[in-house]
């Protein structure tokens, strides 16, 4: 195979690495509530979430992949540098926020990376504004909808079980939380893995491996689901702590309402082909169940820090992507003897300086002469001038 297929395989590997990191980074979204309520131990919760992340391709279409692959930037301007820059921007920001324990959005990091790399190549004409506006609106709408649904679910459940004993309610929702956590993990795999599918599919399209129309091959679907599932297995414990206990303390009933509200939001967004942030969604639902108890139950300073991270995610990943995709690499010297530290080059410089001082600088030699002829002439003229 030539260089292009090898480079293509390398970029696909980087995209799958991003998907793995996405599962690692966003594992907290799937398991934070079920772990914080002590329904499942972390080591069991990650297996539970990873399984439903993987099987999500059986339940959802590829609308989100279509949006990411062709609805954020124009597929016609996509090349290897654009994809590499977009992935580097998203991965770099994911690693930074993961190390800091900040639940930022892997989805919007990827969208910001695509926009930054596309603009760096052709300017703002690369942007598909309808898709970008739709995705940007979801930054506000998905947590708001999750907040509202979780709040309403808590109020409804509290009214239904008002005559039940706390222990009976607790035992019931410990069981029901297995269902809600499964649904949320299903929605997470159905929305988040589709974004990487879109990136790989548009890369294949740019290389001419997808035919005349943009499409997502089935092997890409399986690879992305598997990469995200493996990432979820490794978990993100710093973010689990932030999501599960720093924002507000959760009971099994509240955990059920938060996960159910988040799952409904993700199902709606995936059906509409909108790449939403699962981090934003679950954060909104956790704040909603906390606010249903009392406003002071929510640690608003932690929620404020998370919102700030949301706001800067797309600009920061776009900036990193633009820098990575358009870095001015210095050109390599065309021939080894033209390197400034080579012996032949030093000899020619010494010779030219000596001749200029003597007032008899030679005329410019033609470029077509070979290496051996030039080096031999340099040595002969150097000996004549007393250069060792």
Verbal overview:
By secondary structure, the chain is mostly helical. It has two domains: 3-325, no CATH class; 337-385, no CATH class. 74% of the residues lie in helices and 0% in strands. The chain contains 14 helices and no strands. It has helices at 3-36, 42-54, 63-70, 80-100, 106-122, 129-160, 166-206, 218-234, 237-246, 252-272, 278-293, 300-325, 343-358, 371-385. Helix 1 (3-36) runs antiparallel to helix 7 (166-206), helix 7 crosses helix 8 and helix 10 (252-272) packs antiparallel against helix 11 (278-293). It is elongated. It starts with a helix and ends with a helix. 48% of the residues are buried.
User: What fraction strand?
Assistant: under 5%
- Shape, principal axes of CA atoms: elongated
Average pLDDT level:
77
* β-strand number: 0
Q: Biggest sheet, open or closed, and with what strands and sense?
A: none
Question: N- to C-terminal separation?
Answer: 48 Å
| Number of helices, where a helix is a run of at least 4 consecutive DSSP H or I residues | 14
Gyration radius, in Å: 28 Å
Low-pLDDT parts are: 328-343
* SSE series: HHHHHHHHHHHHHH
- The number of domains is 2
Q: What structural class is derived from the secondary structure elements? A: mainly alpha
Helix content: over 70%
Condensed summary:
By secondary structure, this protein is mainly alpha-helical. It is built from 14 helices and no strands. It has two domains: 3-325, no CATH class; 337-385, no CATH class.
């Amino acid at each position: 195979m030539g260089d292009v297929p090898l480079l293509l395989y390398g970029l696909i590997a980087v995209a799958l690495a991003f998907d793995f990191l996405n599962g690692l980074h966003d594992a907290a979204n799937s398991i934070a509530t079920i772990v914080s309520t002590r329904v499942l131990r972390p080591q069991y919760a990650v297996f539970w979430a990873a399984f439903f992340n993987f099987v999500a391709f059986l339940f959802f279409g590829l609308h989100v992949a279509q949006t990411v692959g062709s609805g954020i930037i124009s597929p016609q301007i996509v090349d290897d540098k654009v994809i590499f820059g977009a992935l580097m921007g998203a991965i770099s920001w994911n690693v930074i926020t993961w190390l800091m324990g900040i639940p930022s959005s892997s989805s919007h990091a990827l969208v910001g990376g695509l926009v930054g790399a596309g603009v760096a190549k052709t300017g703002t004409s690369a942007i598909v504004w309808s898709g970008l506006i739709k995705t940007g609106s979801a930054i506000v709408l998905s947590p708001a909808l999750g907040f509202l649904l979780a709040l309403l679910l808590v109020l409804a459940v509290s009214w239904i079980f008002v005559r039940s004993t706390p222990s009976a309610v607790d035992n019931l929702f410990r069981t029901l939380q297995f269902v809600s956590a499964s649904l949320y993990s299903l929605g997470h795999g159905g929305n988040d893995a589709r974004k990487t599918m879109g990136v790989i599919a548009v890369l294949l399209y740019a290389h001419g491996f997808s035919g005349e129309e943009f499409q997502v091959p089935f092997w890409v679907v399986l690879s992305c689901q598997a990469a995200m599932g493996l990432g979820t297995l490794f978990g993100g414990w710093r973010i689990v702590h932030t999501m599960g206990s720093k924002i507000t303390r959760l009971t099994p009933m509240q955990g059920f309402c938060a996960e159910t509200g988040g799952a409904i939001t993700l199902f709606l967004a995936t059906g509409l082909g909108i790449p939403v942030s699962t981090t934003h969604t679950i954060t909104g639902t956790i704040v909603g169940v906390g606010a249903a108890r009392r406003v002071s139950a929510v640690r608003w300073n932690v929620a404020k820090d998370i919102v700030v991270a949301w706001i800067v995610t797309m600009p920061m990943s776009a900036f990193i992507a633009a820098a990575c995709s358009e870095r001015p690499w210095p050109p390599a010297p065309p021939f080894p003897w033209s390197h400034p530290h080579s012996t032949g080059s030093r000899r020619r410089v010494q010779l030219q300086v000596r001749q200029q001082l003597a007032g008899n600088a030679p005329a410019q030699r033609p470029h077509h002469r070979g290496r051996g002829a030039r080096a031999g002439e340099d040595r002969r003229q150097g000996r004549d001038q007393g250069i060792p």
